[in-house]
Specification:
With 294 residues, the protein is mainly α. Helices cover 68% and strands 2% of the residues. The protein is built from 12 helices and 2 strands. Strands 1-2 form a two-stranded antiparallel ribbon. Mean pLDDT is 77; it is low at 9-16, 27-37 and 280-294.
């Protein structure tokens, strides 16, 4: 099959614009006639959430590099920065009314890097590599679980949700999974000797966190806390300031306590879900006369 020769005007246009025009909401499967003329320019406001997402990916990948260079403390900080930026981009998009399908797909890919690949490789470089192949398998299991959890979240987000899903996640969210899986790193910097025994325990713990990611466990999301009473605004601000100060002063202890408290709240959230949404339906009573007819 021969290629159609381009005329001079078409060739000049191709050389002047080697990249196709970008429209974050444009569907490549649609024709220009169906969608109208393609956008030649977009506002910088539309690009800001995507720029934040790109910065989050850069932070996560930089954390991996720092971990393999032995600078684990900076690596963990970069992973936390990536998690913070990843949580900010969606809110910025909603506040600036610049949400797009392109940004949603970009954010999903960033989640796999920042909450799946980056924490797993940081943990492997710090501790799991002492268990050789078993440690690598545990890291792989966690990354696969994070990818499966994010894929399931994307699919469920497109379907009608049950009433209880407005207040609960299905399984541990990927950002909290990244915080939990790095618990052995926090404990290692608090005095636990990163030896073979600790590495073996970290393998089991990593697999446990991977299971929590893909499980059907109802996890309280906190979405119901939409507004704060006026009399509680100052206490909440003071509590946030104290937590940030502790995080900056005692980073490893604060992160370890945060992870352990979050793990402790999982059974409590499940019991609350059972009381509110998980009660078994009572079967209708059958009278003696009806039983005789059966």
């Amino acid at each position: 099959m021969t290629e159609r020769p381009r005329d001079d005007a078409e060739t000049d246009d191709f050389l002047d614009q080697p990249f196709s025009s970008f429209d974050p909401d444009h569907d490549e499967g649609d024709t220009d006639n169906a969608m109208g003329p393609r956008l030649r320019e977009i506002s910088f406001r539309m690009m800001i959430p995507t720029i934040i997402t790109v910065l989050a990916i850069c932070a996560g990948l930089t954390g991996i590099r720092l971990a393999f260079e032995g600078r684990v403390e900076l690596a963990v900080i970069m992973v936390l920065v990536a998690a913070f930026l990843d949580g900010v981009d969606g809110r910025v998009a909603r506040l600036m009314k610049s949400s797009s399908r392109f940004g949603a797909q970009m954010d999903s890919l960033a989640d796999i890097v920042n909450f799946g690949v980056a924490p797993a490789l940081v943990l492997y470089a710090y501790l799991l590599n002492q268990a050789e192949s078993l440690g690598w398998i545990a890291a792989l299991i966690y990354v696969l679980a994070a990818a499966l959890r994010l894929a399931r979240f994307n699919v469920m987000d497109e379907r009608p949700k049950a009433k209880w899903q407005s207040n609960y996640f299905v399984g541990v969210p990927a950002p909290f999974g990244a915080m939990l899986v790095l618990l052995p790193v926090y404990l290692g910097h608090l005095g636990f000797e990163p030896g073979p025994v600790f590495a073996g325990a970290a393998i089991l713990y990593t697999i446990l966190v991977a299971f929590l990611l893909v499980s059907r466990l109802p996890v309280y999301s906190g979405k119901a806390v939409g507004r704060i009473r006026r009399d509680l605004v100052l206490p909440v601000l003071i509590a946030i300031a104290i937590y940030v100060a502790l995080l900056m002063s005692y980073i490893w202890a604060t992160l370890a306590v945060t992870a352990l408290i979050y793990l402790a709240t999982l059974p409590m959230g499940y019991r609350a879900w059972r009381r509110t949404y998980g009660r078994p339906k009572v079967a209708p009573t059958v009278s003696a006369e009806e039983q005789g007819r059966l």
